[in-house]
Design goal:
The complex is a heterotrimer of chains A (242), B (298) and C (310).
Chain A: E1 5-14, E2 17-27, E3 32-37, H1 43-50, E4 58-63, E5 66-67, H2 73-79, E6 81-83, H3 96-106, H4 112-122, H5 138-150, E7 156-160, H6 171-185, E8 188-192, H7 196-202, E9 205-210, E10 213-218, H8 220-225, H9 227-234
Parallel strand pairs in A: 3-8, 3-9, 6-7, 7-8
Antiparallel strand pairs in A: 1-2, 1-4, 4-5, 9-10
Helix pairs in contact in A: 3-4, 3-5, 5-6
Chain B: H1 2-32, H2 39-59, H3 66-89, H4 99-121, E1 126-127, H5 130-133, E2 137-140, E3 143-146, H6 148-169, H7 171-181, H8 183-188, H9 193-215, E4 220-221, H10 225-240, H11 245-265, H12 270-284
Antiparallel strand pairs in B: 1-4, 2-3
Helix pairs in contact in B: 1-6, 1-9, 1-10, 1-11, 2-3, 2-4, 2-9, 2-10, 3-9, 6-7, 10-11, 10-12, 11-12
Chain C: H1 3-23, H2 26-50, H3 59-74, H4 81-103, H5 108-128, E1 138-139, E2 144-145, E3 148-149, H6 155-179, H7 181-191, H8 193-199, H9 203-229, E4 231-232, H10 239-252, H11 259-277, H12 282-296, H13 302-309
Antiparallel strand pairs in C: 1-4, 2-3
Helix pairs in contact in C: 1-6, 2-6, 2-7, 2-9, 2-10, 2-11, 3-4, 3-5, 3-9, 4-9, 7-8, 7-9, 10-11
Classes of the chains: A alpha/beta (242), B mainly alpha (298), C mainly alpha (310).
């Protein structure tokens, strides 16, 4: 199967900081991959380069054969690559329903009202429909953020820390809803995550970053046992293992 | 040759005047993120107070030379009174509101002060020609210039250097720079941001009042002199980059010299050229020439 | 306010105003005509504020509309109010279409002050132009509407009636626009531009369109104001005039398309009273009122009406 999203030789540095050093990754359609790494390791930089927020110093990114480098976020979304945000980016003075309607309108979805109802149901947000987005609890904000990204029926969805800020006992609930909706639409998913339980449970593949390089790329079980990953990502040292 | 020199000199004189206004405005914005429209009223207050104090000084028969000191006293007085009054009395309660709302608040303050000035000083013009005519004229080629213009340039240069030294060489200045750079982080580091705000606004007010005080001998001080000043000062500050002192100086020079050229060769377009320059700069550099870099948002 | 109630309110208001055009005393017709002209300008401002932008330079288009319509009557000899209104609107829209290309890139303070700067360019040009009367401006006298000659003494009433119909149409269209996807998108841009771009829409395009519409409305208002007053001068483009429009917008709030006209009427009424009895505290009163509204009624006077209904 050919990769739906492919990054080749990505390089990006901010002064002396290397955020991406020759990063090459390929993602199969409908796969679910988790990107892990300590803060500053390059995961979010990778996400930002794919979605057009940053331009790589060198390298190429191809989606469905189309070159993404040089395109702005608007074009990239139009092609079928959507993202959600670590800090939910919502329209705070509009209601939850209106937030989705905005997304529907932009994507020129027919029967927007019905589509919105369906999405609210799918994400368990029906009860919040009329509430202002600025007044929602964090977990609900996250769900809305992801729901909005799914409106345009993207082929690739990038989730930036989907459970960060969410209460511990709600994390699984949020991820279950998200991954359920995603599976229905047959979307390829990449998600950045710090919570290794979430990673293990939902990812079919894990890519570990450190200092702008990919240091591990395999199924979760193997990656999370890798010595370098344990040292640079999970943060265990020889002493702690006792 | 002497025409070019005259145009240049005119430009530099105008730039000096612009710089005094722009310096205060840009500092206040840099530190407090407020574009202070009331700056125009502070300018006017400086002019009126100078006319009153220096006028009284001269009328009492004191040495004419002392009137210059009176101009300075007027500026310091206005700044010392109006600065804290506006900052503590009004602005302090509004921090955290949207930038444009704060702009509207300073606009409201401006409207109130304009009428307050009318209530205190009446509507007739006040004249204070002595400091202007006292030092006499000097010549550039065939043209005679008041020496007072040199005083203006000198004051602007001294003020500019003093501000630069205060900002970059003193401890208080560095605290100010820190707040300009990142207010939240500065507060987290223990900097008394409240006090920095008060100090900044007061200094800014003094600078505006100084501009007005120095201008008083050159014009007839009457209601409304503060109105046009604001828009001009803003143009300079925007060209230089909001929050940049060096930018204010360079912006003032650019605008002053361009205006001088316009006045000489195409008088109808005087205002046009100033804003045209501003628009050109903004097209090339949307945040002005020396604006601070912005951090990533997502 | 639900769609039905806005339609009804608009219809009732316009019916009342048309009645006033016919039978109200001259001074009231004048006041209402001016309020309506300014209300049109403020409608455009409200649209921009919905998008998160405050223009401190609508005086540019107000002045353009006024002068363009006046020049058509005086210099081109076409003293037909219908043509003058169209000229004012089109002229303003054309300039907005050009300036909007630049201004739509800016936000917050930069947008506010850049728009102010452009209005000051026009002001400067008008003041220095002796051909256009410099600071005095010049008078104009329109004698016909759409080819129909008007009896002397009746023209102002006819122009006012036309402006009422214009308000009816414009306000209704704007109401539809604001209730549509575009209106919601404008509000979304105000809340979070980044997200709008990431959802696939062009923020620049929406801001540009809204800016041109606001410019056209201000031009139309300028033409109506010129017709009502019979005189144009550079003050129309001065930044304090633009400041007045902003004040009226804040006074009324952005909650409904009728609010701009109502607050303009209140503003003009108060200004007339102030000019009579206390001209030296008019600006101060404006300033105090603005502060009071910002602090206690940030949604404008309209929120009072809404609270009562709720």
């Amino acid at each position: 199967m050919s990769a739906i999203l492919e990054a080749m030789g990505l390089n990006k540095s901010f002064g002396a900081v290397s955020a991406a050093a020759d990063v090459s990754l390929a993602f199969e359609p409908e796969s679910v991959t988790s990107l892990i790494g300590a803060n500053g390791a390059g995961k979010t930089t990778f996400l930002n380069m794919v979605t057009g927020y940053l331009r790589p110093d060198a390298g190429a990114i191809r989606f469905d054969g189309q070159e993404l480098v040089g395109l702005d976020p608007r074009r990239i979304t139009g092609l079928g690559v959507s993202r959600s945000f670590q800090i939910p980016q919502l329209f705070h003075s509009l209601s939850v329903r209106e937030n989705l309607l905005v997304a529907e309108g932009i994507a020129a979805v027919e029967h927007a009202e019905e589509a919105t109802d369906a999405l609210l149901e799918r994400f368990g947000l029906a009860q919040y429909g009329a509430q202002l987005a600025g007044l929602l609890p964090e977990g609900v904000r996250k769900l809305l953020d992801v729901a909005m990204a799914l409106v345009a029926r993207p082929k690739v969805l990038l989730l930036d820390e989907p459970t960060s800020g969410v209460a511990a006992d709600e994390k699984y609930g949020v991820m279950d809803l998200v991954m359920g909706a995603v599976r229905e639409q047959g979307v390829t998913v990449l998600f950045v995550e710090h919570d290794m339980d979430i990673v293990q449970r939902y990812a079919g593949r894990v890519v570990a970053f450190y200092d702008g390089r990919v240091i591990a790329d395999d199924e979760p079980r193997k990656v999370l046992c890798d010595a370098e990953v344990r040292r640079y990502v999970i943060g265990e040292t020889a002493h702690a293992q006792a | 040759m002497s025409t070019a020199l005259a145009v240049l000199f005119d430009g530099v004189v105008y730039s000096s005047w612009l710089f005094l206004m722009a310096a205060g405005l840009t500092l206040i914005y840099g530190v407090m993120k407020i574009l202070n429209i009331a700056h125009g009223s502070l300018y006017a207050l400086g002019g009126y107070t100078a006319a009153t104090i220096a006028g009284a000084w001269l009328a009492a028969g004191h040495a004419a030379v002392g009137s210059y000191a009176m101009l300075l006293v007027a500026a310091l007085l206005v700044g010392a009174v109006m600065g804290p009054l506006l900052e503590r009395g009004l602005l302090k309660w509004m921090y955290g509101k949207d930038e444009v709302v704060l702009l509207l608040i300073t606009y409201a303050a401006f409207l109130i002060l304009e009428d307050a000035i009318k209530l205190v000083w009446g509507v007739e013009s006040k004249l204070l020609p002595e400091p202007y005519s006292l030092p006499g004229n000097f010549r550039i080629g065939t043209l005679a210039y008041p020496v007072y213009n040199l005083v203006l340039i000198a004051v602007a240069v001294v003020v500019g250097l003093a501000l630069a030294w205060a900002l970059y060489r003193t401890r208080q200045g560095k605290l100010l720079l820190a707040v300009i750079h990142d207010r939240e982080m500065s507060a987290a580091m223990g900097i008394n941001v409240d006090r920095v705000y008060l100090a900044t606004f007061t200094v800014g007010a003094m600078l505006a009042a100084l501009g007005g005080a120095l201008t008083a001998p050159m014009i007839s001080v009457s209601p409304g002199i503060g109105v046009e000043v604001i828009v001009l000062s803003f143009a300079v500050v925007v060209v230089g980059g909001l929050g940049s002192l060096g930018g204010a100086a360079i912006g003032a020079l650019m605008v002053g010299i361009v205006r001088s050229l316009a006045v000489r060769y195409w008088p109808e377009a005087e205002l046009f050229t100033i804003y045209f320059v501003m628009a050109l700069v903004l097209i090339a550099r949307p945040k002005g020439l020396f604006s601070p870099p912005e951090a990533r948002k997502i | 306010m639900s769609r039905d109630r806005t339609a009804a309110a608009l219809a009732v208001t316009c019916a009342l105003l048309l009645a006033a055009a016919a039978i109200a005393p001259q001074w009231l017709v004048f006041l209402l005509a001016l309020a309506l002209a300014k209300g049109l300008v403020v409608l455009g401002l409200v649209l921009l504020m919905r998008t998160g932008l405050v223009s401190f330079g609508q005086g540019l288009y107000f002045g353009l509309g006024a002068y363009a319509s006046a020049l058509l009557a005086n210099r081109a000899g076409l003293a037909d109010a219908a043509l003058m209104i169209v000229a004012g609107t089109v002229c303003a829209a054309a300039v907005a279409a050009v300036l909007g290309l630049l201004l739509a890139r800016y936000r917050e303070i930069f947008f506010a002050m850049l728009s102010l700067a452009f209005s000051m360019i026009l002001y400067g040009a008008l003041v220095k132009s002796s051909a256009l009367g410099s600071t005095d401006g010049f008078n104009l006298h329109a004698k016909a509407f759409a080819g129909v000659a008007l009896a002397a003494g009746v023209e102002r009433r006819v122009f006012f009636a036309v402006s009422v119909l214009a308000l009816l149409v414009v306000a209704w269209l704007l109401h539809r626009y604001l209730s549509s996807h575009w209106g919601r998108l404008s509000a979304a841009i105000r809340d979070n531009e980044l997200r709008v771009e990431y959802l696939g829409a062009s923020v620049y395009r929406v801001v540009y369109v809204n800016y041109v519409v606001a410019g056209a409305l201000a031009g139309m208002g300028g033409a109506f104001a010129a017709l009502a007053v019979g005189h144009v001068d550079p003050e129309t483009a001065y930044w304090t005039t633009s400041g007045e429009f902003v004040f009226i917008a804040i006074l009324g709030g952005t909650g409904n398309v009728l609010a701009p006209f109502l607050s303009a009427a209140i503003f003009e009424g108060l200004r007339t009273v102030a000019n009579q009895y206390a001209p030296n505290v008019w600006q101060m009163s404006l300033g105090v009122a603005m502060l009071a509204i910002i602090m206690f009624l940030p949604g404008g006077l309209w929120t009072l009406l809404r609270r009562r209904a709720a």
